[in-house]
């Protein structure tokens, strides 16, 4: 068993031998902070971002449904919960197991393992533990995507412009929920050439061309008062 030079020492999260696990905890804090302030595009309800390079009639399918890759994601528990939740769980378990391994090694041999070796052991142990923990979570949380939907099924749905300003020739990012309640991010231009739809406004998707949707601001659909 490899030993950390220097003999007996007091375990510390910020010591060199715990660096991989301190980084993991730091990433958890950073992602959590971004989620709180709304910078990160992480949605605990299982949001999915549409791949703009897929075929126009392609389906957004269950990530656990395709061959060897699907078997691997099922084994790891991916798709049981939103990926953000899976990642946060994995990082926490990785840090917890890693520091436990270092503490055990220190008690057993008088010094912790080399960081890369401890990280390798913790990473291998964290994957099955994470998969085991997220399965019960998946029963009480929405999954990333439980049913395949076609892009055309989003036409007629309401969305909200989240990033940018939608105008002719310059689509903006919008968040739209499908009939299953899952959210998708799509690019939207105004249906009317002269219209401009700022961030925060709601829009009704009325048609699609390729990967771009065209929408009507919901405010414009209200009848103007009679003079």
TrEMBL record:
- Membrane keyword on record: yes
Q: Which UniProt keywords apply?
A: Membrane, Transmembrane, Transmembrane helix
Family annotation (InterPro entries): YqiJ_N (IPR048376), YqiJ_OB (IPR010840)
Q: Tell me which residues make up the Inner membrane protein YqiJ N-terminal domain.
A: 18-130
| Residues passing through the membrane, by range | 21-40, 83-101, 113-134
Keyword Transmembrane in the entry? The reply is: yes
Query: Any idea where the Inner membrane protein YqiJ OB-fold domain is?
Result: 153-214
Entry-linked Pfam families: YqiJ_N, YqiJ_OB
Protein name, per record:
DUF1449 family protein
Q: Which domain of life is it from?
A: Bacteria
């Amino acid at each position: 068993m490899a030993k950390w030079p220097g003999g007996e020492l007091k375990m510390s999260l910020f010591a060199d031998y715990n660096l991989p696990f301190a980084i993991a905890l730091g990433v958890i804090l950073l992602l959590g902070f971004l989620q709180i302030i709304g910078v990160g595009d992480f949605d605990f309800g299982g949001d999915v971002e549409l791949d703009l390079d897929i075929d126009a009639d392609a389906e957004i399918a269950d990530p656990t449904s395709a061959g060897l890759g699907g078997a691997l994601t099922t084994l790891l528990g991916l798709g049981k919960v939103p990926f953000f939740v899976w990642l946060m769980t994995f990082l926490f378990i990785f840090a917890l197991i890693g520091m436990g391994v270092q503490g055990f090694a220190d008690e057993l041999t008088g010094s912790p393992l080399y960081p890369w070796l401890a990280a390798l052991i913790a990473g291998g142990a964290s994957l099955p533990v994470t998969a085991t923990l997220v399965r019960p979570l998946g029963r009480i949380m929405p999954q990333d995507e439980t049913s395949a939907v076609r892009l055309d099924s989003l036409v007629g749905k309401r969305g909200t412009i989240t990033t940018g300003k939608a105008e002719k020739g310059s689509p903006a990012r919008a968040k739209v929920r499908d009939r299953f309640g899952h959210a998708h991010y799509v690019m939207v231009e105004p249906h009317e050439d002269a219209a401009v739809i700022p961030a925060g406004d709601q829009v009704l998707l009325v048609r699609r061309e390729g990967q771009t949707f065209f929408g009507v601001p919901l405010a414009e659909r209200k009848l103007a008062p009679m003079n």
